[in-house]
Amino acid sequence: MGSVNAISKPTPVNPRLSSLPGESFPVCIIGLGLIGGSLMRDLAAAGWPVFGWNRSAHTVKVANRSGFDVSGDLDATLRRAEAEKALVVLGVPMPALPRMLEAIAQHAPSVGFTDVTSVKAEVHELVEQHGLTDRFVGGHPMAGTANSGWDATMSGLFDGAVWVITYDNAKNRGQRGARLWLDTWRRTVQMAEAVGAAVVPTVARRHDSAVARISHLPHVLAEALAVTGDMGGPLSLTLAATSFRDGTRVAGTEPELVRAMCENNREALVKALDEALALLQKAREDIASPGQDLHRLATEGHAARMRFEARAGRKVKDAPRRPIIRVQPGAPGWTDQLSSAESMGAQIGIF
Amino acid sequence: MGSVNAISKPTPVNPRLSSLPGESFPVCIIGLGLIGGSLMRDLAAAGWPVFGWNRSAHTVKVANRSGFDVSGDLDATLRRAEAEKALVVLGVPMPALPRMLEAIAQHAPSVGFTDVTSVKAEVHELVEQHGLTDRFVGGHPMAGTANSGWDATMSGLFDGAVWVITYDNAKNRGQRGARLWLDTWRRTVQMAEAVGAAVVPTVARRHDSAVARISHLPHVLAEALAVTGDMGGPLSLTLAATSFRDGTRVAGTEPELVRAMCENNREALVKALDEALALLQKAREDIASPGQDLHRLATEGHAARMRFEARAGRKVKDAPRRPIIRVQPGAPGWTDQLSSAESMGAQIGIF
């Protein structure tokens, strides 16, 4: 009986954070890969009206068979988004974005939209070039697996994950733009919360700088470690144990994915890499000089890891330990609140 | 009934590899930390005659209470090893080795001995300086946890682990030295096999070069990554997910342990670090130049990780996939066999 009720009257996945429990709005997802497709699954499960488009006829067929409202006609899908005043979510990879922005400008001229790509400054620039800044909010759900495509989609992918939402366009909007943009921003937050994510606000460039440090740099270091270990030949690989295994794990990522994420964030990654190189050069000098020691690097690295551990693994559902700041979109001083939240790496909720 | 039999008639942990099933000999373990103490547990459990010494009176008391044959008198313990023709295992850390070598020269003048420290060239030099090369075989069980001391000891620590055994001293021994050294080498292998380890032969310098690449370099890179991520402030740590978590895991190791392992292997670590730095500098140039790409590093790193995965996780008990080469200590050409095994990173067994 309980399960019948659950089906007939869907409840939000994360009612504690949704500002308006039970309120939903239509969402149109363009591109149903791992992120877009998993988002569709979770929104549908939460009872939200959700429909979408995918390029592959096979995916359209498979998704339809599973009961999802998916079309292979991009223009018609966007016209429907416009008619139903849906929030459009761009789930396509970076190279496909320009074409999608053109289609949005043409077929969905008045609805807000967001994206899910892993860099944000370049996306904001593209959106600006297409004159769509008034109704765009950048997004980056920090979730994923090594797999991609509709077949890799899953329920619960975003539960407890951080979902970065940009606020670059919060200021200097015209009156019409202000209302539409604020509505888009609020809806993007509500949608992320509905699938259990923890919303963290940033501006695009600070997001890109952060992910360069904690996501792209780890990939570059892992590749270099894997190659250096391998250059030691079979003996090295036989002796390799957990420290090498952990340090090279992300070198198992498809090389083209590593290239795409690193090459889309060149400026920030060069800066992070230069900082790491300076530390490693210093370590090299210290190790080469018997009078020197590694005390400072080992101590600071250990302290940094401890700080990370103190913050990490904070799932929304099991821990209130990450600070949560409540903001009212558009209220006086609200962007200062977002800026405060950003500098603390804090989660936000809206009211 | 079966368990009574098992207790009254101990069988080797790893009979498949022991050349002479059931054969055991006295083992004297000097230093009962994580490695030495766990070795004592496993040998005792396998029914081997094993006794030892520890500096801490508390450890002696606790170990005795648990039924282990442990003394706090170093000289007497070594005299007993001499009288019982035991294999002596030095389980003390590097700084304590010189004193132990003096004690062995004085109180156990004719028995063979091995060690368990994580670098080998420096130990071989120390042994040479004490004139004990004729009866020394270097060892390095690639097993451990983040903890240390008798309280951290456990059963089964070596089961499936690689136990490196050096053969630097296999040649150019005098006739007396040859027999004693061969006997020490054979016993060291048998003891490692008795606790379930996979024996891999190397010469000391190649061991040190390999562990610099696959154990010490990962620590240095992890420290640098942790610091660089942390320099991004709270936002970076909030966005950090699995790639940062895995890449910095070993930065959680006690800084003094990291220092000790890196500073004891300076020469080999500088070489490994220089190779990694060259790869990272090239990556930095490629990322900074929009016309360049990361194709080569990403592809080679991925291939290296795949090769590691293809070899790794091969527990002795569940996989014959790591090549096993059978050698007869002292037979014509046997060091060539060891050299072949080393270049393949192969496991050996003796007959």
UniProtKB/TrEMBL annotation, chains A, B:
The keyword Oxidoreductase applies. Pfam families: PDH_C, PDH_N. Keywords: Oxidoreductase. GO terms for biological process: tyrosine biosynthetic process. The keyword Nucleotide-binding does not apply. GO terms for molecular function: NAD+ binding; prephenate dehydrogenase (NAD+) activity; prephenate dehydrogenase (NADP+) activity. Residues 25-319 form the Prephenate/arogenate dehydrogenase domain. This is Prephenate dehydrogenase.
